[in-house]
Amino acid sequence: MKRWALLFLFLATSCTCLAQKPAKTAPVTTYIRAGRLFDATSDRVRENMVIVVEGNRIRSVGPAASISIPAGSNVIDLTRATVLPGLIDCHTHLGSRADRYDEIFRFKDTPFLSAFAAVVNARKTLDAGFTTVRDVGSKPFLAVDLRNSINEGLVPGPRIVASGPGITITGGHGDLNNYSPQISVKMFPEERGFQIADGVDQVRHVVRAQVKYGVDVIKILATGGVLSKGDSPGAPQFTFDELKAAAEEAHMAGRKIAAHAHGTQGIKNAILAGIDSIEHASLIDDEGIRLAKEHGTYLVMDIYNDDYILNNAPAFGLPEENIEKEKMVGRLQRENFEKAFKAGARMAFGTDAGVYPHGDNAKQFFYMVKYGMTPAQAIRSATSSAADLIGRSKDVGTIEAGKYADIIAVAADPLQDVRALEDVGFVMKGGEVFKDAITGRQPH
Ligand code: ARG
């Protein structure tokens, strides 16, 4: 290329750079006055605190007396409220609706219907004070796209740690069972590639395929389930070797892996295989609890669900088979939650939202307290512990300098009555206010 041409190219590119560069503005600083602050770094509450938010992160936190707020600053007055870190639900299905239990919908619904629901559900979840969720099962790759759309600011919603569809054995919890072999239904565009896997090689392939499409976490179905047909919650699905291969592949790719497991043996197989969290854990026994402690495996027990499944889902067409299965596991799961917690197993908050209506996530806190936790412990399971399970402790889960400004507030005191969390009045995510029914300011 001639010298003048190079010069021209240089000028042209540097000019467009200059023209396109947005004007640098200083990040906005906001001062939040917290009457009571539960920062989730301990079980204690501190009074009269100030949180300084700069841009999307927390710059500092300290007693009101030690922080001077310059005149004319942007101040959010939560002096009459309890301020906490944004909550984290480690088990949601944002694309699922709790009013579609009739089997016919499995044949009628397109993936688009799930995606529309997910946009609405993301907003409901955020408004309920959940600023982060781990979404563990949707059509490929709804959660990944929703995560990206939220991160781009296209739609409002929580931060999403996204999985692909749950990986299942043929005839397992994630398959469509008990129809005539004459009928062939493709549940997903490429069933084998994303979801059904039999044998170690197929398991490796499906995990890799999901990673290829951008999932943050792998979800595998290690036992039968309640809301599926033709399988039993107590029965193991996948062999130990298959689970081990899945965990190995996920970890090699720098992803965590969660296993759906109700059954006693399937839970142990999953823990020994190196899986990071056991979802449901309904029929866990003493040995399972001991193994979970030994391996540092988190238990994510959805102990609110039983209420909704037995009281509401039948009116939406839930078949008798599933009602019976729920009756088998529901009460035991709550008792085992208490047992496992008292024995010292690690617990992270996860509700299986989508089985019940999105936005009601906080209803589970009541049961966690009823079955053995203090309110502070229940809240920490949904903040600091949840952040640890999802591998995001650097960014979310506590109110500390350097973390994202994911901050919520409730008018009543959740440390007295944890049900106060069912009515979150203020929600900030990444420094942006999405809801404010406490000071009455208009969020944008
Ligand atoms: N998705 C789970 C399943 O179908 C829901 C289990 C809900 N029941 C419960 N007691 N947690 O297996």
Q: What do these coordinates show?
A:
With 444 residues, the chain is of the alpha/beta class. The chain has two domains: 96 residues, Urease, subunit C, domain 1 (Roll); 273 residues, TIM Barrel. 34% of the residues lie in helices and 20% in strands. It is built from 14 helices and 15 strands. It has a seven-stranded mixed sheet, with no helix packed on it. A five-stranded parallel sheet has the order 8-9-10-11-12. α8 packs parallel to α9 and α10 runs antiparallel to α11. The longest helix is centred in the C-terminal third of the chain and has 23 residues. The chain is globular, with a radius of gyration of 23 Å. It starts with a helix and ends in an 8-residue tail after the last strand. About 4% of the residues have low confidence. Bound molecules: arginine. The site of arginine has 16 residues, from α10 and α11.
What is the topology?
Elements: H1 3-20, E1 29-37, E2 46-54, E3 57-63, E4 74-85, E5 87-92, H2 105-108, H3 111-127, E6 130-135, H4 142-152, E7 159-162, H5 191-194, H6 200-212, E8 217-221, H7 240-252, E9 256-261, H8 264-272, E10 277-280, H9 286-295, E11 298-300, H10 305-311, H11 320-342, E12 346-347, H12 363-370, H13 375-381, H14 384-389, E13 407-410, E14 424-429, E15 432-436
Parallel strand pairs: 1-4, 5-6, 6-7, 8-9, 9-10, 10-11, 11-12
Antiparallel strand pairs: 1-2, 2-3, 4-13, 13-14, 14-15
Helix pairs in contact: 6-7, 8-9, 10-11
The protein binds arginine.
The site of arginine (ARG) has 16 residues, from helix 10 and helix 11.
